[in-house]
Amino acid sequence: MTRTTSARPRKTKGIVSSDARLDRYDWDEIRSALNENGSAVIGKLLTPKECRALVALYDDEKRFRRHIVMAQHGYGQGEYKYFAYPLPAPVAGLRGAFYARLAPLANDWNRSLRIARRFPRTHAAFVKQCHLAGQTRPTSLLLRYGPGDYNRLHQDVYGAHLFPIQVAVLLSDPANDFTGGEFVLTEQRPRMQSRAEVVPLRQGDAVAFAVNDRPVAGTRGTYRVKMRHGVSRLRSGARTTLGIIFHDAT
To answer: What is the rounded CA–CA span in Å between residue 9 and residue 38?
Structure first.
């Protein structure tokens, strides 16, 4: 049985940037977990105070470009809002810092899957490629769930320029703010039934996970594994999550 690896930060003082924050983690361990399981938990990424500050943005309408009510589209129950450009500084910083550390693995995956596209070193260069292809709308978002809400299994694919990994950060505290509402991943291997995995998260934890396809080595070579993600039904309280998606939308 596979397990989702949880990377823990090394203790440090005076963290002033997203790069310094992410440097606390063992990225070989994180990339290994993504290769093995399709996901990796990055523990204690944000403090409770930082989480509350991001949750408070949800009611500031000028921060967002679009508000989605899931039930109106058959996505589940709950709602989410896509940030507008310019992104809030903490979100933009994390987006760029995560991308720089995940792009080498994304390129390895594309090589293994015989996909010609290679990702540039910086997120700014990748966003420029997206915009030249007509993908100009930011995709980072805040998701909010109340009692009975859930998110159906899905993939966040917004155009031809697709970064194969994304990140979600739990901003609410499951010990005090809500019950239920687990983050769920499913893996579909060829000629096999789907495997589901519940990813345990605490307030401030992040999970990096495969957006769509990821490569898995088999006895007859590398094959594609199809990944989907969602959120189980919230039983009580309120749950807010930050979603960091690296490609922009058409």
So the answer is: 20
Domain residues for 225? Answer: 19-244
DSSP string for residues in 121-184: SSHHHHHHHHHHTT--B---EEEEE-TT-EEEEE----SSS--SEEEEEE-S-TTTTEEE--EE
* Cβ–Cβ < 8 Å for 133, 200: no
| CATH code: domain of residue 238 | 2.60.120.620
pLDDT at 134: 97
In the chain, % of residues over pLDDT 90? 86
The model's pTM is 0.91
C-beta separation of 30 from 5 below 8 A: yes
Distances, alpha carbon 41 to alpha carbons 26, 79, 174, 217, in Å:
12, 24, 16, 22
The total number of structural domains in the chain stands at 1
Backbone angles phi, psi at 58, to 5 degrees: -60, -35
49-66 per-position pLDDT tens digit? 999 999 999 999 999 999
Q: What is the pLDDT of residues 106-124, one digit of tens each?
A: 999 999 999 999 999 999 9
Residue 123 within a domain: yes
* Domain assignment present for 9: no
- Backbone phi, then psi, for 219, in 5-degree steps? -70, -20
12 belongs to a structural domain: no
What is the maximal distance between C-alpha atoms in the chain? Answer: 53
The reply to whether 4 falls in a domain is no
